[in-house]
Design brief:
Strand content: 15-25%
CATH topology of the largest domain: Aminopeptidase
Helix content: 25-40%
Structural class: alpha/beta
Shape: elongated
Mean pLDDT: 95
C-alpha cells in the first residue's frame, strides 16, 4: 500500500473539524510524514482578524436519538452524523421539532450530507444531526429523546507547512485542506498528493523553493497568509491548489485570475503532451475554494482537481472511491510540471516604466519593418517586437518557456533575446 493510501486509511475516519482532537491528530500524523515541517498555531484567544472567528475546540462525546427507550439513531457512527460544531442538547422533542434539526442529502436516499456552515458562524450555533433521507422519511409521530454531549474548549487553529529549498528567492506554494470530517477525497486526497510530491523532491536541487501548506479550508489559509511576514509573502511567486485528487473522475485545471501563473501553463503542457484526459476552465468556473484567498494577497493561483465528482459533500466520499492510480497520476503530473518549470530560466524584471531600447546603451529595439518603406515584415521579428512591448508590463517573474508559448516563438530565440536584456541589467535570469 502506498503512503498516500495509508494516510487516507488512517485519517479518513477522523472527525476533522477545524478545531478538534481529531484535527490535532491529523496534524501530528502529517508532521510524521513530512520531517522538518512546521505547525502554525492561531488561538481563538488571540486578536480578531478581519471579522473571522476561530471556533471553539469541539469533540462529540455522545449523541443519539431515542423513542420509547429504543435507539433510533446513533450519532457517533459517522463523523458526519452530528452537524459540525453542533451545540450540546438533551431533552425530549416532538417529531416536528426533531425534523427541524435533521438534515439529509437531497441527492441520495442512503447517504449523509456534510453540514459545515456553523464552522464559519460559530457565534450562532444550533444542535442537529445529519441522517439519511430513508430514516427521515420513516420517522413516525410521537415524542423523541435527543442527547448530544460535546467536549469544548478554547479553539486553536492549526496549519502544517513544509518546504523544499531552492536556489532562487522565489517560492511556488502547493495548498491543500486537512479538514472535512469523515471523507477521503474532499481535502484529504489533495493533501496526501502534496505530501508525496514534497517527499519525492527531497534531495533534489531546484531553482524554486516549493512550500506545501496544509490548512483548514478558507479560514486556515487566511490566517496562515495573514501571519506571514510581508517579505516572505512577496517571495511566493504563485500557488497551485490541490483538491479532490483521489477519485476516478477526470482531472480539471482551473486557471488563475488573468491566467498568469507559470504553473498552470506547465501543467497544461504536461497533461497535453502525455495525453492525460483533463478539462480546463477560467478562474472560479470549475470550483470556488481557497484560490481566491491567495489571489487576495496578490499571489496568482491555479488549481488541479477532479471536481466535480458524484460523492461530493456526502458520506459516499470514502475510501471505496479512492484510487491509487488517480493519486499517482496527479503526483506524476505535478512533478512533470515542476520539471517543466525547472528546465527553463525564470525572468525577473529589474526596471520601472519603459526604456528607450534603441538607445545605444541598450541596443535592444526590435524593428519589425515598415510596409510603407517597402520593407518585408518577418513573423519572428513581429513576434519578438510583441515580446519587447510586453516585458515592461511584467507584474511578476515568468519563465522563458511561458513567454515563448505566449508569443509563439522558439524557446532558444526568446532566451537569446532575454540574455541581451540581462547583459544591460534590465532583467535577471534565474537558472
Amino acid at each position: 500500500m502506498s503512503l498516500m493510501m495509508q494516510l487516507l486509511e488512517e485519517l479518513t475516519p477522523l472527525n476533522r473539524v477545524v478545531c478538534s482532537s481529531d484535527f490535532d491528530r491529523t496534524v501530528r500524523r502529517m508532521q510524521q510524514a513530512l520531517p522538518g515541517s512546521r505547525v502554525f498555531e492561531f488561538p481563538a484567544s488571540g486578536p480578531e482578524h478581519n471579522g473571522w472567528v476561530i471556533p471553539p475546540c469541539w469533540d462529540v462525546v455522545d449523541a443519539n436519538i431515542t423513542r420509547n427507550g429504543e435507539l433510533i439513531y446513533d450519532g457517533t457512527w459517522n463523523p458526519l452524523a452530528v452537524i459540525a460544531l453542533s451545540a450540546p442538547f438533551e431533552g425530549r422533542v416532538s417529531l416536528d421539532e426533531l425534523k427541524a434539526h435533521l438534515h439529509y442529502d437531497h441527492r441520495y436516499s442512503d447517504s449523509l450530507t456534510f453540514h459545515f456552515r456553523q464552522l464559519f458562524r460559530s457565534w450562532d450555533r444550533d444542535w442537529g444531526f445529519c441522517v439519511t433521507r430513508d430514516l427521515y422519511d420513516a420517522l413516525e409521530p410521537g415524542e423523541y429523546g435527543v442527547r448530544i454531549v460535546t467536549r469544548e474548549g478554547t479553539g486553536v487553529l492549526k496549519a502544517v507547512a513544509a518546504s523544499h529549498a531552492g536556489s532562487s528567492p522565489y517560492t511556488i506554494a502547493l495548498c491543500a485542506n486537512l479538514d472535512h470530517p469523515g471523507v477521503s477525497n474532499d481535502g484529504l486526497a489533495g493533501a496526501v498528493v502534496g505530501v508525496e510530491v514534497l517527499r519525492r523532491l527531497a534531495g533534489r536541487r531546484t531553482t524554486f523553493t516549493y512550500d506545501l501548506v496544509l490548512a483548514p479550508g478558507i479560514i486556515g489559509t487566511e490566517y496562515y497568509l495573514s501571519a506571514l511576514p510581508e517579505a516572505r509573502r512577496q517571495h511566493i511567486l504563485e500557488c497551485v491548489c490541490l483538491w479532490m485528487l483521489g477519485s476516478a473522475t477526470e482531472l480539471a485545471l482551473q486557471e488563475s485570475r488573468e491566467t498568469r501563473s507559470n504553473s498552470e501553463h506547465a501543467l497544461e503542457r504536461v497533461m497535453t503532451a502525455r495525453g492525460v484526459s483533463h478539462r480546463r476552465g477560467e478562474f472560479e468556473t470549475i470550483m470556488i475554494n481557497d484560490e481566491y484567498l491567495w489571489e487576495a494577497y496578490g499571489i496568482p493561483t491555479c488549481s488541479l482537481s477532479r471536481f466535480p465528482y458524484p460523492e461530493y459533500h456526502s458520506s459516499r466520499d470514502n475510501l471505496s472511491i479512492m484510487s491509487d492510480d488517480s493519486l499517482e497520476e496527479a503526483v506524476s503530473v505535478i512533478l512533470g510540471a515542476i520539471d517543466e518549470l525547472e528546465q527553463t530560466p525564470l525572468v525577473e524584471k529589474r526596471f520601472q516604466g519603459t526604456v528607450c531600447l534603441s538607445n545605444p546603451r541598450y541596443g535592444l529595439y526590435v524593428d519589425p519593418g515598415q510596409v510603407s518603406f517597402g520593407e518585408a515584415i518577418g513573423e519572428e521579428q513581429r513576434h519578438l517586437r510583441m515580446l519587447q512591448d510586453y516585458l515592461p508590463s511584467l507584474r511578476g517573474a515568468v519563465t522563458v518557456r511561458s513567454l515563448a508559448a505566449r508569443f509563439a516563438l522558439p524557446d532558444a530565440v526568446v532566451l537569446e533575446y532575454l540574455r541581451a536584456w540581462e547583459r544591460t541589467g534590465l532583467v535577471k535570469l534565474w537558472t
